[in-house]
Here is the input.
Amino acid sequence: MKQLTNLIIEFEEKIKMLMDELQFLKMRAYVLEDENEKLRLEIMDVYQYYLKEAGDPKSLREQAPGQGLENLGRLYNEGFHICNLHFGQMRSDGDCLFCMGFLDKNSRTGK
Ligand SMILES: [Zn+2]
Here is the structure.
């Protein structure tokens, strides 16, 4: 009987540990979701900035030489879509032809 009691106590401790872990994961998920939202807004800003400046290659050169395109290229390399079809979403299937077309087209007209 004593052995059974010990097993129950052991089990109870394991459950407590799992609950702690669950609490930690919940906090972690919250932080990540928050961060994700901030990053999404940040890339939207970059995108809006680039769209605004891209219509006028001269002012883009004067105000921020290639910065918009550079940021978008960086986002693409970090694994995000920068094409208007999936903008801001993670690229899960390797290279995206739309993104690459967008970068290619704009790197040529920007110079
Ligand atoms: Zn894409």
Summary: The mean pLDDT is 81. The longest helix spans residues 2-54.
